[in-house]
Amino acid sequence: MGTGKSNEGIARVVAQYRGKYRVRSDEREYWAEVTGKMMFAAETKTDYPVVGDLVSISELESGHAVIREILPRKTVLQRKAAGKDDVQPIAANIDVAFVVQAVDRDFNLNRFERYLTIIKTGKIEPVIILNKIDLIPKEELDEKIAQIKDRFFNIQVILTSVIDRSGIEGLQKAIQAGKIYCFVGSSGVGKSSIINELLGKELIKTKKISASTKKGKHTTTHRELFVLGNGGMVVDNPGIREVGVAAAGEAVADVFGDILELARNCKFADCTHRHEPGCAILAALTSGELAEEKYLNYLKLKNESDYYAMSSLEKRRKDRNFGRLLKNYKKLKDQA
Has residue 103 got a pLDDT over 90? Predict the structure, then answer.
Protein backbone atom coordinates (compact mmCIF):
# COMPACT_ATOMS: atom_id res chain seq x y z
CA MET A 1 0.00 0.00 0.00
CA GLY A 2 1.30 3.45 -0.86
CA THR A 3 1.84 6.07 1.80
CA GLY A 4 1.28 9.25 -0.18
CA LYS A 5 -1.82 11.00 1.17
CA SER A 6 -4.15 12.99 -1.04
CA ASN A 7 -7.84 13.80 -0.58
CA GLU A 8 -9.89 13.52 2.54
CA GLY A 9 -13.61 12.92 2.37
CA ILE A 10 -16.66 10.95 3.47
CA ALA A 11 -17.41 7.38 2.38
CA ARG A 12 -19.80 4.59 3.30
CA VAL A 13 -18.59 1.17 4.47
CA VAL A 14 -20.01 -1.28 1.91
CA ALA A 15 -18.20 -4.48 2.91
CA GLN A 16 -16.54 -5.73 6.06
CA TYR A 17 -13.88 -8.44 6.29
CA ARG A 18 -11.48 -9.35 9.08
CA GLY A 19 -9.45 -6.20 9.62
CA LYS A 20 -10.25 -4.76 6.18
CA TYR A 21 -13.12 -2.80 4.67
CA ARG A 22 -14.38 -1.66 1.31
CA VAL A 23 -15.65 1.91 1.39
CA ARG A 24 -17.39 3.89 -1.33
CA SER A 25 -17.42 7.65 -1.80
CA ASP A 26 -19.29 9.58 -4.49
CA GLU A 27 -16.27 9.26 -6.76
CA ARG A 28 -14.88 5.74 -6.26
CA GLU A 29 -14.42 2.65 -4.11
CA TYR A 30 -11.39 1.89 -1.90
CA TRP A 31 -9.87 -0.87 0.17
CA ALA A 32 -9.47 0.60 3.65
CA GLU A 33 -8.11 -0.04 7.13
CA VAL A 34 -8.60 1.91 10.35
CA THR A 35 -5.80 4.11 11.65
CA GLY A 36 -3.57 2.99 14.51
CA LYS A 37 -5.01 5.84 16.55
CA MET A 38 -8.55 4.45 16.12
CA MET A 39 -7.38 0.96 17.07
CA PHE A 40 -5.63 2.28 20.18
CA ALA A 41 -8.70 4.30 21.26
CA ALA A 42 -11.20 1.49 20.61
CA GLU A 43 -12.59 0.01 23.83
CA THR A 44 -15.16 -2.37 22.34
CA LYS A 45 -16.16 -3.80 18.94
CA THR A 46 -18.73 -1.01 18.60
CA ASP A 47 -15.81 1.43 18.21
CA TYR A 48 -14.87 -0.17 14.88
CA PRO A 49 -16.65 0.51 11.58
CA VAL A 50 -19.40 -1.79 10.34
CA VAL A 51 -21.31 -2.03 7.06
CA GLY A 52 -23.59 0.98 6.64
CA ASP A 53 -21.33 3.36 8.58
CA LEU A 54 -20.42 6.75 7.15
CA VAL A 55 -16.72 7.34 7.81
CA SER A 56 -14.16 10.05 7.19
CA ILE A 57 -11.28 8.75 5.09
CA SER A 58 -7.93 9.83 3.74
CA GLU A 59 -7.17 8.57 0.26
CA LEU A 60 -3.86 6.80 -0.32
CA GLU A 61 -2.22 5.53 -3.49
CA SER A 62 -3.36 2.56 -5.59
CA GLY A 63 -7.04 2.67 -4.62
CA HIS A 64 -6.47 2.41 -0.88
CA ALA A 65 -7.60 4.62 2.00
CA VAL A 66 -7.48 4.85 5.79
CA ILE A 67 -10.55 5.30 7.97
CA ARG A 68 -10.00 8.11 10.47
CA GLU A 69 -13.38 8.46 12.16
CA ILE A 70 -16.88 6.98 12.30
CA LEU A 71 -19.59 9.60 11.83
CA PRO A 72 -22.49 9.52 14.33
CA ARG A 73 -24.76 6.53 13.72
CA LYS A 74 -28.49 7.00 13.20
CA THR A 75 -29.18 3.40 14.26
CA VAL A 76 -27.12 0.31 15.01
CA LEU A 77 -28.11 -3.35 14.88
CA GLN A 78 -26.14 -5.40 17.38
CA ARG A 79 -26.27 -8.56 19.45
CA LYS A 80 -24.47 -10.05 22.41
CA ALA A 81 -21.50 -12.04 21.13
CA ALA A 82 -21.83 -15.80 21.60
CA GLY A 83 -20.40 -16.91 24.98
CA LYS A 84 -19.17 -13.41 25.86
CA ASP A 85 -20.40 -10.23 27.52
CA ASP A 86 -19.25 -8.18 24.52
CA VAL A 87 -21.73 -6.58 22.14
CA GLN A 88 -21.15 -7.34 18.46
CA PRO A 89 -22.39 -4.69 16.00
CA ILE A 90 -23.92 -6.14 12.83
CA ALA A 91 -24.72 -3.07 10.72
CA ALA A 92 -25.27 0.68 11.13
CA ASN A 93 -27.69 3.33 9.86
CA ILE A 94 -30.30 0.67 9.06
CA ASP A 95 -33.84 1.91 8.41
CA VAL A 96 -35.62 -1.46 8.11
CA ALA A 97 -34.49 -4.97 9.12
CA PHE A 98 -36.03 -7.92 7.28
CA VAL A 99 -36.17 -11.02 9.50
CA VAL A 100 -36.12 -13.97 7.09
CA GLN A 101 -37.31 -17.47 7.96
CA ALA A 102 -37.89 -20.38 5.61
CA VAL A 103 -41.33 -21.93 6.07
CA ASP A 104 -40.19 -25.50 5.41
CA ARG A 105 -37.67 -25.97 8.22
CA ASP A 106 -36.67 -22.77 9.98
CA PHE A 107 -40.05 -21.46 11.17
CA ASN A 108 -39.83 -20.61 14.88
CA LEU A 109 -41.85 -17.95 16.71
CA ASN A 110 -39.38 -17.74 19.61
CA ARG A 111 -36.56 -16.97 17.19
CA PHE A 112 -38.68 -14.22 15.63
CA GLU A 113 -39.04 -12.67 19.10
CA ARG A 114 -35.27 -12.72 19.60
CA TYR A 115 -34.64 -10.96 16.31
CA LEU A 116 -37.41 -8.44 16.94
CA THR A 117 -35.88 -7.65 20.34
CA ILE A 118 -32.41 -6.83 18.98
CA ILE A 119 -33.95 -4.90 16.06
CA LYS A 120 -36.16 -2.76 18.30
CA THR A 121 -33.25 -2.22 20.70
CA GLY A 122 -31.49 -0.54 17.77
CA LYS A 123 -34.58 1.65 17.07
CA ILE A 124 -34.98 -0.05 13.68
CA GLU A 125 -38.27 -0.96 12.01
CA PRO A 126 -38.72 -4.76 11.71
CA VAL A 127 -40.45 -6.60 8.86
CA ILE A 128 -40.97 -10.38 8.74
CA ILE A 129 -40.26 -12.30 5.53
CA LEU A 130 -41.55 -15.86 5.18
CA ASN A 131 -39.49 -17.35 2.37
CA LYS A 132 -39.71 -20.55 0.28
CA ILE A 133 -43.52 -20.50 0.40
CA ASP A 134 -43.57 -22.76 -2.68
CA LEU A 135 -42.41 -25.67 -0.51
CA ILE A 136 -45.52 -26.08 1.68
CA PRO A 137 -49.30 -26.38 0.98
CA LYS A 138 -51.44 -23.23 1.20
CA GLU A 139 -53.27 -24.54 4.29
CA GLU A 140 -49.99 -24.95 6.18
CA LEU A 141 -48.84 -21.49 5.07
CA ASP A 142 -52.12 -19.92 6.22
CA GLU A 143 -51.65 -21.58 9.63
CA LYS A 144 -48.15 -20.14 10.00
CA ILE A 145 -49.37 -16.65 9.04
CA ALA A 146 -52.17 -16.96 11.62
CA GLN A 147 -49.62 -17.94 14.30
CA ILE A 148 -47.49 -14.88 13.48
CA LYS A 149 -50.45 -12.49 13.57
CA ASP A 150 -51.63 -14.00 16.85
CA ARG A 151 -48.17 -13.62 18.42
CA PHE A 152 -47.06 -10.26 16.97
CA PHE A 153 -48.95 -7.04 16.45
CA ASN A 154 -48.50 -4.30 13.84
CA ILE A 155 -45.56 -6.01 12.10
CA GLN A 156 -45.67 -6.36 8.32
CA VAL A 157 -45.34 -9.89 6.92
CA ILE A 158 -44.08 -10.44 3.35
CA LEU A 159 -44.34 -13.84 1.63
CA THR A 160 -41.65 -14.73 -0.91
CA SER A 161 -40.34 -17.48 -3.15
CA VAL A 162 -37.36 -17.11 -5.48
CA ILE A 163 -38.51 -20.18 -7.44
CA ASP A 164 -41.66 -18.54 -8.84
CA ARG A 165 -40.70 -14.95 -7.78
CA SER A 166 -43.76 -14.69 -5.51
CA GLY A 167 -43.62 -11.50 -3.46
CA ILE A 168 -40.34 -10.28 -5.00
CA GLU A 169 -41.96 -7.47 -6.96
CA GLY A 170 -43.86 -6.31 -3.87
CA LEU A 171 -40.63 -6.39 -1.86
CA GLN A 172 -38.88 -4.31 -4.53
CA LYS A 173 -41.64 -1.68 -4.31
CA ALA A 174 -41.33 -1.59 -0.51
CA ILE A 175 -37.64 -0.64 -0.74
CA GLN A 176 -37.21 3.13 -1.04
CA ALA A 177 -34.35 5.11 -2.54
CA GLY A 178 -31.76 6.37 -0.07
CA LYS A 179 -32.79 3.96 2.72
CA ILE A 180 -30.78 0.99 4.01
CA TYR A 181 -32.42 -2.41 4.49
CA CYS A 182 -30.75 -5.27 6.34
CA PHE A 183 -31.54 -8.98 5.88
CA VAL A 184 -31.02 -11.16 8.98
CA GLY A 185 -31.76 -14.81 9.70
CA SER A 186 -30.24 -18.26 10.01
CA SER A 187 -28.06 -19.84 7.34
CA GLY A 188 -29.93 -21.37 4.43
CA VAL A 189 -33.17 -19.38 4.73
CA GLY A 190 -32.60 -17.69 1.37
CA LYS A 191 -31.44 -14.16 2.27
CA SER A 192 -28.78 -14.05 -0.46
CA SER A 193 -31.13 -15.55 -3.06
CA ILE A 194 -33.75 -12.87 -2.34
CA ILE A 195 -31.14 -10.11 -2.69
CA ASN A 196 -29.97 -11.60 -6.00
CA GLU A 197 -33.58 -11.42 -7.24
CA LEU A 198 -33.84 -7.79 -6.10
CA LEU A 199 -30.59 -6.97 -7.91
CA GLY A 200 -31.71 -8.77 -11.06
CA LYS A 201 -28.40 -10.64 -11.25
CA GLU A 202 -26.50 -13.18 -9.20
CA LEU A 203 -23.91 -11.03 -7.46
CA ILE A 204 -23.97 -13.17 -4.31
CA LYS A 205 -22.84 -16.78 -4.63
CA THR A 206 -25.36 -19.33 -3.37
CA LYS A 207 -25.43 -23.09 -3.19
CA LYS A 208 -28.16 -24.87 -5.10
CA ILE A 209 -31.19 -26.26 -3.31
CA SER A 210 -30.82 -29.97 -2.60
CA ALA A 211 -33.37 -32.10 -4.42
CA SER A 212 -33.53 -34.54 -1.51
CA THR A 213 -33.66 -32.17 1.45
CA LYS A 214 -35.16 -29.10 -0.29
CA LYS A 215 -32.67 -27.06 1.75
CA GLY A 216 -30.71 -24.22 0.23
CA LYS A 217 -27.52 -22.87 1.75
CA HIS A 218 -25.82 -19.59 1.03
CA THR A 219 -22.11 -18.95 1.17
CA THR A 220 -22.06 -15.43 2.63
CA THR A 221 -18.99 -15.15 4.85
CA HIS A 222 -18.88 -11.36 5.25
CA ARG A 223 -21.30 -8.45 5.46
CA GLU A 224 -21.88 -6.48 2.29
CA LEU A 225 -24.08 -3.61 1.10
CA PHE A 226 -25.58 -3.57 -2.40
CA VAL A 227 -27.29 -0.67 -4.18
CA LEU A 228 -30.48 -1.52 -6.08
CA GLY A 229 -31.49 0.10 -9.36
CA ASN A 230 -33.90 2.47 -7.58
CA GLY A 231 -31.22 3.73 -5.16
CA GLY A 232 -32.31 1.65 -2.18
CA MET A 233 -29.53 -0.18 -0.33
CA VAL A 234 -29.63 -3.75 1.03
CA VAL A 235 -27.21 -5.50 3.39
CA ASP A 236 -26.56 -9.24 3.23
CA ASN A 237 -25.38 -10.85 6.47
CA PRO A 238 -23.88 -14.26 7.28
CA GLY A 239 -26.36 -16.54 9.04
CA ILE A 240 -26.59 -15.87 12.77
CA ARG A 241 -26.53 -19.08 14.81
CA GLU A 242 -27.04 -17.48 18.21
CA VAL A 243 -29.09 -14.31 18.67
CA GLY A 244 -27.82 -13.07 22.04
CA VAL A 245 -29.76 -10.25 23.69
CA ALA A 246 -27.84 -7.44 25.42
CA ALA A 247 -29.40 -4.67 27.56
CA ALA A 248 -32.78 -4.49 25.85
CA GLY A 249 -35.32 -3.62 28.54
CA GLU A 250 -37.37 -1.23 26.40
CA ALA A 251 -37.32 -3.53 23.38
CA VAL A 252 -38.45 -6.54 25.43
CA ALA A 253 -41.32 -4.41 26.76
CA ASP A 254 -42.17 -3.42 23.19
CA VAL A 255 -42.05 -6.95 21.72
CA PHE A 256 -44.04 -8.36 24.64
CA GLY A 257 -46.37 -5.38 25.04
CA ASP A 258 -49.44 -7.56 25.66
CA ILE A 259 -47.70 -9.29 28.60
CA LEU A 260 -46.65 -5.96 30.08
CA GLU A 261 -50.23 -4.75 29.71
CA LEU A 262 -51.41 -7.74 31.77
CA ALA A 263 -48.77 -6.92 34.40
CA ARG A 264 -50.55 -3.63 35.14
CA ASN A 265 -53.21 -5.70 36.93
CA CYS A 266 -50.81 -7.67 39.13
CA LYS A 267 -51.48 -7.39 42.88
CA PHE A 268 -47.90 -6.43 43.71
CA ALA A 269 -45.94 -3.68 41.96
CA ASP A 270 -42.70 -5.70 42.18
CA CYS A 271 -44.30 -8.93 40.91
CA THR A 272 -41.80 -11.23 39.18
CA HIS A 273 -44.63 -13.07 37.38
CA ARG A 274 -43.31 -16.43 38.52
CA HIS A 275 -45.14 -17.48 41.70
CA GLU A 276 -46.78 -14.50 43.39
CA PRO A 277 -50.48 -14.64 44.36
CA GLY A 278 -52.58 -12.16 42.41
CA CYS A 279 -50.27 -12.22 39.37
CA ALA A 280 -52.36 -11.28 36.33
CA ILE A 281 -49.84 -12.86 33.93
CA LEU A 282 -49.98 -16.24 35.71
CA ALA A 283 -53.78 -15.99 35.76
CA ALA A 284 -53.80 -15.40 31.97
CA LEU A 285 -51.45 -18.36 31.58
CA THR A 286 -53.79 -20.62 33.59
CA SER A 287 -56.88 -19.49 31.67
CA GLY A 288 -55.20 -20.03 28.30
CA GLU A 289 -55.36 -16.33 27.38
CA LEU A 290 -51.55 -16.30 27.29
CA ALA A 291 -49.61 -19.04 25.48
CA GLU A 292 -47.05 -20.85 27.65
CA GLU A 293 -44.41 -20.75 24.89
CA LYS A 294 -44.66 -16.95 24.67
CA TYR A 295 -44.58 -16.57 28.48
CA LEU A 296 -41.45 -18.73 28.82
CA ASN A 297 -39.68 -16.90 25.97
CA TYR A 298 -40.55 -13.56 27.60
CA LEU A 299 -38.95 -14.68 30.89
CA LYS A 300 -35.88 -15.98 29.04
CA LEU A 301 -35.27 -12.79 27.03
CA LYS A 302 -35.98 -10.55 30.04
CA ASN A 303 -33.51 -12.54 32.15
CA GLU A 304 -30.82 -12.25 29.45
CA SER A 305 -31.40 -8.50 29.14
CA ASP A 306 -31.41 -7.95 32.92
CA TYR A 307 -28.31 -10.10 33.42
CA TYR A 308 -26.38 -8.24 30.70
CA ALA A 309 -27.40 -4.86 32.17
CA MET A 310 -26.29 -5.95 35.66
CA SER A 311 -22.99 -7.44 34.48
CA SER A 312 -22.25 -4.30 32.43
CA LEU A 313 -22.94 -2.11 35.47
CA GLU A 314 -20.69 -4.28 37.62
CA LYS A 315 -17.95 -4.08 34.97
CA ARG A 316 -18.21 -0.26 34.91
CA ARG A 317 -17.98 -0.20 38.72
CA LYS A 318 -14.85 -2.36 38.62
CA ASP A 319 -13.34 -0.08 35.94
CA ARG A 320 -14.07 2.98 38.08
CA ASN A 321 -12.60 1.33 41.19
CA PHE A 322 -9.49 0.31 39.24
CA GLY A 323 -9.17 3.89 37.96
CA ARG A 324 -9.36 5.22 41.53
CA LEU A 325 -6.77 2.66 42.65
CA LEU A 326 -4.35 3.82 39.94
CA LYS A 327 -4.99 7.47 40.80
CA ASN A 328 -4.33 6.88 44.51
CA TYR A 329 -1.21 4.86 43.69
CA LYS A 330 0.18 7.68 41.52
CA LYS A 331 -0.62 10.19 44.27
CA LEU A 332 1.22 8.13 46.88
CA LYS A 333 4.14 7.65 44.50
CA ASP A 334 4.39 11.41 43.90
CA GLN A 335 4.34 12.07 47.65
CA ALA A 336 7.09 9.50 48.32
Answer: yes
